[in-house]
Specification:
The chain has about 260 residues and is mostly beta strands. Helices cover about 0% and strands about 40% of the residues. A hairpin with a 5-residue loop joins strand 5 and strand 6.
């Protein structure tokens, strides 16, 4: 695939795709039903990536001491040290080690939490910094928003947690509500789903065998009332440490608008 540099995204519209893979071997097929209780999802197979509604953003090119980012086409970028469709056909992302660096898929559009969107992926984090790494977010492009509304992360104790901003996101510092799930073993597969749910969001993380790691339905505090129509999804690695480069590999990625 041909790389596109400094790509600026003004794309709009709705992307929907149904995939039927019937000729793959059992090891390639690996069918899994990804269905949070509030939605109906198709049976998906490994190597399915519905990423056309996302772009890829990274701070890799700006150096360790800078959080400055550059954006690229999610489907037109490959063979980079920070973003690669590897020899097994899976997408891998890496970030620089210094705190605050990131490589992530970011949804192009914004919307209300009542819109009924869902983001589901299966992945494994193969390198975790000492202070942890963020693996998914619901962020907001409203004016002067300084932090995400919700982020899912692996903390320094290796438990998967959800942190929710409870005060006005334009404040210089944040107040938070935190929810703690089970311990994550580096390099193991997990399935993460976030579903907009009638003004809030349901976040569920399970092991590949179906055991629940964390499952919460959360609504924003009244401090977010002014930002009700500008939420969007993110997924990838956003480092919280300084000792090593985080790395995530996606088996599949499903987005339903």
């Amino acid at each position: 695939m041909k790389k596109m540099t400094n790509y600026k995204f003004l794309a709009t519209g709705i992307f929907s795709i149904a995939v039927f893979l019937t000729s793959c071997s059992q090891t390639e097929q690996e069918e899994v039903v990804l269905a949070p209780e509030a939605m109906e999802a198709p049976k998906l197979s490994a190597k399915v990536y519905q990423i056309s509604d996302f772009y890829i953003e990274t701070s890799w090119l700006s150096g360790e001491d800078s959080r400055s980012t550059k954006s690229f086409s999610s489907t037109g970028t490959d063979n980079e040290s920070w973003y690669d469709k590897n020899s097994s056909g899976y997408y891998t992302m890496k970030s620089l080690a210094t705190d605050g660096n990131r490589t992530e898929w970011k949804e192009i559009e914004e919307s209300s939490l009542t819109n009924g969107k869902s983001m589901i992926y299966k992945a494994k984090v193969e390198s975790i910094p000492e202070n942890g790494v963020t693996i998914a977010q619901i962020h907001n492009r409203g004016n002067n928003v300084n932090r995400p509304w919700l982020r899912v992360f692996i903390d320094d104790d290796r438990k998967i947690k959800i942190k929710v901003t409870t005060n006005n996101p334009s404040n210089s510092s944040g107040t938070y509500q935190e929810y703690t799930g089970a311990t994550y073993s580096q390099g193991s597969d997990y399935i993460l789903s976030i579903t907009y749910n009638g003004g809030g969001a349901t976040v569920k993380v399970t092991t590949s065998s179906g055991s629940t790691i964390i499952n919460k339905t959360i609504s924003p505090s009244s401090s977010w009332n002014s930002y009700s129509n500008t939420y969007y999804f993110k997924a990838g690695v956003y480092t919280e440490g300084d000792d090593k480069q985080p790395k995530i590999t996606f088996n599949y990625f499903y987005f339903n608008d």
